[in-house]
Amino acid sequence: MYRHGQQEIDKVTEVIASGSWFRYYGTDRHGKTVTQLEKQLADFTGVGHVLATNSGTGALICSLAALGIGPGDEVIVPGYTFIASAAAVLAVGAVPVIVEIDETLTIDPKSIEAAISPRTRAVMPVHMLGYPSDMDTLMAIARKHDIKVVEDAAQAVGGEYKGRKLGAIGDMGCFSLQWHKIISTGEGGCVLTDDQTSYERAVIMHDDAHCFRAIDQGVPAFPGMNLRMSEVAGALGCAQINRLPSLIRDLRDTRRRMVETLGDIAPFRIAPSSDAAGIAGTNITLQAPDRETAQRFAGKTGMGSVLNTKATNWHIYYHWDYILEKRSANGKGWPWKFEGWESPVNYHKNMCPNTLDILQRSFNIGVNPEADTESIEKMTETITLGVREVG
Ligand SMILES: Cc1ncc(COP(=O)(O)O)c(C=O)c1O
Predict the structure, then answer these.
(1) Which of 20, 128, 351, 370 has the greatest CB tally within 10 Å of its CB?
(2) Is 211's pLDDT higher than 90?
(3) pLDDT interval class at 28 (50, 70, 90)
(4) Ligand 1: does its nearest atom lie under 6 Å from the Cβ of 84?
């Protein structure tokens, strides 16, 4: 979360004073604020339907359930993403298949075709750090193999691919509005889709008592979970989304000035992108040509590569022990095993060597949209010196 102020205070105060803090009933203004946020997000992204949820994980669970994905099914996820992408697949009883990323830090389209099996129901591109996945290629692969695309745009709210908003391109898309995301409701998320039935099924999944509410139901109800957003969180969201266009503009502008100030960083480079103009702007990733140069650069600058940054290593499949060891709450091996069936999917720490190599050679630099010229120069100086010493 980059910016907040009086707008958030005023909107939250309005909801608290109303005495109606719950999405579905309360005073005569019930649900007004979350509904307003959904409309603002639909207008911003251009999708037909938005459903606000309690979290990005909740949004992923609702999206997978909306598509009817469950036991015996597989969903392809990249080896570089927050563990929630894979955990959400397990939460609906399906099996995550972990594949390589490429130098864009997003899922490698080549590794998807190799991972498709008769059980594959979906692929989950993750727009990590606001970097767009190669959506044209991914959509073509998905259509060819008749599988769905669930975009995890948790870290990419406001980012684009060829002029279309990330999260609004696949069959389903998910945002996270958690504290560390581009805009925030503290905890929160949302589902995006153009498909009416998928939307209605996502609504059912996010509200276990949905069928008792006076809401039109076009599709038969099934057991859901409580993954709803509260009106107080909705109030934060309404204020935050107003800030999004200027925030993305400032992030991109600061990022561009940082890249220009860095200048020629050979033999390093800025990570390539499937659409550089669409990057949300929260990060710059430097890539060393090989591990040895990366290690020397890390030694000179004190910067950790993505692979060696402990604070964020839950984003790398290598550290997902409970998944690699196929552990779940029930202790019975489900969903990898049930009723005499056992999934052929297996994991091990070195299963995605390209991903580990790329992350070993990649260095992320966060972009501060408020950075002035002086602070940009100070920050880029360390990098430029490091590059010169190892180059
Ligand atoms: C790529 C990615 N996917 C999913 C999530 C889950 O979102 P949340 O924390 O809102 O459940 C996050 C962030 O936390 C994320 O970074």
Answers:
(1) 128
(2) no
(3) low
(4) yes
Query: What is the rounded CA–CA span in Å between residue 355 and residue 100?
Result: 5
String of DSSP letters for 335-346: TTEETTEE----
The whole-number average pLDDT for the span 34-63 is 98
**What is the CB neighbour count within 10 angstroms for residue 95?**
22
User: Can you tell me the distance from the alpha carbon of 72 to that of 171, in angstroms, rounded to the nearest whole number?
Assistant: 21
Q: Which pair of tokens denotes residue 363?
A: 């260095």
CA distances (Å), 54 to each of 49, 64, 131, 358, in order? 17, 16, 24, 33
Instruction: Check pocket membership of 2 for ligand 1, CB cut-off 6 A.
Output: no
How does DSSP assign 185-233, residue by residue? -SS-EEEEES-HHHHHHHHHHT-TTGGGSSS--SS--------PPPHHH
* Strand-strand pairing, 189-193 and 172-176: antiparallel
Radius of gyration of the chain (CA): 21
Which residues have C-beta within 8 Å of that of residue 352, sequence separation ≥ 6? 79, 98, 99, 100, 101, 317
Other beta carbons within 10 angstroms of residue 96's beta carbon come to: 23
pTM of the model: 0.97
Give the domains, in start order, of the chain with CATH numbers: 6-242 (3.40.640.10), 245-313+353-390 (3.90.1150.10)
Question: pLDDT by residue (tens digit) across 65-83?
Answer: 999 999 999 999 999 999 9
In terms of residues, how long is the chain?
391
Question: Is position 378 annotated as part of the catalytic site?
Answer: no
Pocket test for ligand 1, best of 176, 229, 313 (most atoms within 8 A of CB): 176
What pLDDT does 14 receive?
95
In tens, the pLDDT along 250-275 reads 999 999 999 999 999 999 999 999 99
Any ligand 1 atom below 6 A from CB of 185: no
List the Cα angle 171/176/177 in 5-degree steps.
140
DSSP annotation of 325 reads T
| 128: DSSP letter | G
